[in-house]
Amino acid sequence: MAQTQTVTNTGITEWVILMSDVTPAATAANKIVCLNMATPCTAAAASTFADPADTATHHTDAGLLIATVDTMSQPTTNTTGDTIGFNHVFTATGTRNVAGIHLCNSDGDVTFVECCFNAVLAVENTDTITIDGHVVVDQA
Amino acid sequence: MPATNTGAGFRVDYTAEQRKADGTLIATVVSIQPPAPPQCLSFRCLLKYVIDSLYVAFLASYHRRRVYYATHNRDKKILERYRTGKPSPKNLWQAIHANIKLTCPVCRKYNVDPLLFDKNYRRV
């Protein structure tokens, strides 16, 4: 399967709520978690925090669990400041499979972005995974 | 009010680098964007879309095999291009070559392209 990545439906809803401020419970994207699956997953807009792509689940240990993103930024792709940047380093503390990542809200209950790697990364103790991602508001 | 589709939306790009504790690169995962949909119904537009789709399919296949190969040879010396993903195939022809080369152990070891039949098996 190819690398797949998508903004989820729940993520769009959360962003709109955040922008319109109609529901104080909405929070911004600033957490990230690795997906656990033995085979490559396929990112889907219908995926949610509780139900990631295919049979993937969130890692809950070994340094791959949900954490605050190291660096959130607002770089420029087409128009000034039109991009959400996220950069994070996971350091594994055990042997695990990593099939992808979720970019989540700070409450840890909504997934904004789901990325599925093309091949499962077999990480071992002390390995690092550096994630560098961008979400562009695309006018093209 | 009639529905209006402006074509705007979100696009996601990412890379993921796996490294050993000493910083040695093991593999790099990169995102691949699907081909742009055709903007007209002429034969030329549709043909371009078909070629672009095939290119993305072969490119995705190459990167999938490359990452698998790199992660399963984490402690061996392999061509750096299979760890970094660079240079990446730029067109359909290069993507086909890259896939075939990656499946050929001798070609991988000696960095030769099995489809280039010149006298020295040009290294690419």
Using brief descriptors, characterize the structure shown:
heterodimer; A: 140 residues; mainly beta; six-stranded antiparallel beta sheet; three-stranded antiparallel beta sheet; 1 helix; 44% strand; globular; B: 124 residues; alpha+beta; two-stranded antiparallel ribbon; 2 strands; flat; disordered N terminus
Summarize the structure.
The complex is a heterodimer of chains A (140) and B (124). Chain A is mainly beta and 140 residues long. Chain A has 1 helix and 9 strands; from the N terminus they run E-H-E-E-E-E-E-E-E-E.
Describe the structure.
The complex is a heterodimer of chains A (140) and B (124). Chain A is mainly beta and 140 residues long. Chain A has one domain. Chain A has one helix at 9-20; strands at 4-7, 29-36, 57-58, 67-68, 71-73, 83-91, 96-105, 111-123, 128-138. In chain A, the strands form two sheets. In chain A, strands 1, 2, 3, 4, 7 and 8 form a six-stranded antiparallel β-sheet that branches. Chain A has a three-stranded antiparallel β-sheet with strand order 5-6-9, with no helix packed on it. In chain A, strand 7 and strand 8 (111-123) form a beta hairpin. Chain B is an alpha+beta fold and 124 residues long. Chain B has one domain (15-110). In chain B, 42% of the residues lie in helices and 14% in strands. Chain B has four helices and two strands, in the order E-E-H-H-H-H. Chain B has helices spanning 43-71, 80-84, 92-103, 105-110; strands at 9-19, 25-30. In chain B, a hairpin with a 5-residue loop joins strand 1 and strand 2 (25-30). In chain B, helix 1 packs parallel to helix 3. The A-B interface holds A 1-3, 5-7, 12, 40, 101, 113, 115, 117-119, 121-123, 126-140 and B 7-21, 26-27, 29-32, 56-57, 60-61, 63-65, 67-68, 71-72.
